[in-house]
Amino acid sequence: MVEETDKIKQHIDEERENLGRNLDEIEFRFKDATDLKAHFARNTGWFMGAAVAGGLLLSLAFRKSPTSGSADTDWVPDAKGPGAIKRAASSRFVSTHLNQVSETVDHIVAGLVGVFADKLQSFVAEAVPGFQDQYNGAKQRGRSSVEPMRSRSEG
Questions:
Q1: What are the pLDDT digits (tens) for 37-83?
Q2: What angle do the packed helices 44-62 and 82-127 form, to 10 degrees?
Q3: Chain-centre distance of CA 41, in angstroms?
Q4: Domain count, the chain
Q5: Dihedral through CA 111, CA 113, CA 115, CA 120, nearest 10?
Q6: 5: in domain
Q7: What pTM did the predictor assign?
Q8: Nearest of 107, 117, 115 to residue 59 by alpha carbon
Q9: Dist. CA 109–CA 51, nearest whole Å
Q10: Which range is least confidently modeled, 19-23, 71-75, 124-128?
């Protein structure tokens, strides 16, 4: 009887250890699946592409249409009374806020493009020996160090 009890205790201890390992594995997988930095590091191009595409779509969605004209043309000639004035003022108010959202999205896209450019520069610098020196020299000169090819008649 004592022997059976020991076997049961040993079995329970083994199962407890297995359960602990399984919980540790689940925790590791969950942290890995929800780690945005790791996903970004592995899929930088996809994140940047999605951000640029989303920013472009949002910018286009909130951009003022070219036919909307100035604030003076918000007046609706057929409408009369204080309601027409309220609609015109409300239209300007919404337009102002949508422009702020559009500018914010434009700034976000510009920031993401900057991050992408830095990542691209780092990637090329790691892949091509001597690139970093040439890149820094071109950056200091403020222009590309690659000169356009001239035809023989220009030389």
A1: 888 888 888 888 888 888 888 877 777 665 544 444 444 455 555 55
A2: 160
A3: 12
A4: 1
A5: -170
A6: no
A7: 0.34
A8: 107
A9: 7
A10: 71-75
Residue 20 covered by a domain:
no
Q: Which of 42, 143, 41, 63 lies closest to 109 in space, CA to CA? A: 63
- The backbone region for 147, taken as left when phi is positive above 0, alpha when psi lies in -120 to 50, beta otherwise, is beta
Question: Which residue range(s) make up the domain with 95?
Answer: 35-141
Which residues, 6+ apart, have CB-to-CB distance to 121 below 8 Å? 135
Write down the pLDDT at residue 82: 55
- In angstroms, the first-to-last Cα distance of the chain is 103
- Calculate the CA dihedral of residues 91, 95, 98, 103 and round it to 10 degrees: -170
Tabulate helix, strand, coil % of the chain (nearest 5). 75, 0, 25
**Residue 15, in any domain of the structure:** no
Cα–Cα distance, 63 to 53 (Å, whole number): 15
Tokens of 118: 């830095």
Sign of CA dihedral 92, 93, 96, 102: negative
Q: Indicate whether 88 belongs to any domain.
A: yes
